Amino acid sequence: MQPQSQTTATNPAQTSPSPSPSSLLPPTSYPLSPSLKIFAIESSCDDTAAAVVENGRKVLSSVVASQVFRHVEFGGVVPEIAGRMHCEAISGVAKEAFSQAGVTIDDVDAIAVTAYPGLIGSLLVGVNFAKGLALTASKPLIPVHHLRGHIAANFISHPGLEPPFLCLVVSGGHSHIVEVKDFTDMRIIGRTRDDAAGEAFDKTARTMGLPYPGGVHMDKLAENGNPEAFTFPVPKVSGSPYDFSFSGLKTAVINTIHNMQQKGMELPREDMAASVRNSVVNILTDRFLLAARDTGYKRLVLAGGVSANSLLRRRMKELCDAGGYELYYPALSLCGDNAAMIGAQGYFEFLCGHTADMSLNARAERSIEL
Length: 370
Ligand code: KG4
Ligand code: ZN
What we know:
The chain is α/β, with parallel strands linked by helices.
């Protein structure tokens, strides 16, 4: 669906299926303001975030409390700690987001929240906080898919961007090539068979002794290294030509590093980082460009934490310039997890009437196709 202009928008709540139990629900009609403000919450992994977003494109506030300083000592996210830290942080983060936007709960039209996919104990904190707000303030509640949110970060960074387009969604937990037919109509045409791209970076970075999350450290180190110093096998994935695999690369990197250690050789870290980054980016761009050529999409979009990778951005720019494609990626501040992207996608879901009642529950897994 194309988003309707604010003057003609129908009330989405009127088109929602009749909810139950009725005594627990917000009212069935809401006065829509010409500038539709959404208060959004994100807590799917290790960032507690809240934001106020207007009309899906304009960020009035965006607050992110990262827990990475606690997880770094374990080399990865500890789910139990993450859930507890979301509990401690969420009220303060929400208060700060309202304050920075200069609005109160009465001024917002709806509450959006990441409901899936992610760490279940983390998601539950955000979902229950959002349900409490929606219930007490009688506001509609909008469940948002985390990866749809990552894609929507581009609607904030590029106010003129509209579907249809082909999107490479690359995060710490997922790697997909997605046909974005419309704001809420998506189809996966390629996916990873094993690790996500971010995981491939994080696991190889860990072998090199880099701190969690390794992707960003690897990216910095790689800038001064030789990408041809080490060569790694190109994965063969049978079946879909658009699917990725990173497990072979991970094993090859680990074996190379162990062999060098056994021989007492010093690891040229910059060269290793540059070679790993080059291999991951080659795998991603080969499949993405092949999918673009076969499907005929001329507008290509990057999304997710790994879309911050400097080589991925540069290489995609070169390939798109050479192949006559339009390329979009989010501002660096919107690549990682944040609630502004959830508020942006929440707006488009809301215009389609995709609201939930108080029976909404978090889910660790759910397809972006919904
Ligand atoms: O989207 P995101 O913030 O969280 C998930 O939804 O998973 O993605 C986090 C992932 C991590 O694996 C992190 O290492 C990776 O994004 N990442 C990067 C860069 N910045 C973050 N990977 C490569 N290069 C970067 N510059
Ligand atoms: Zn994410």
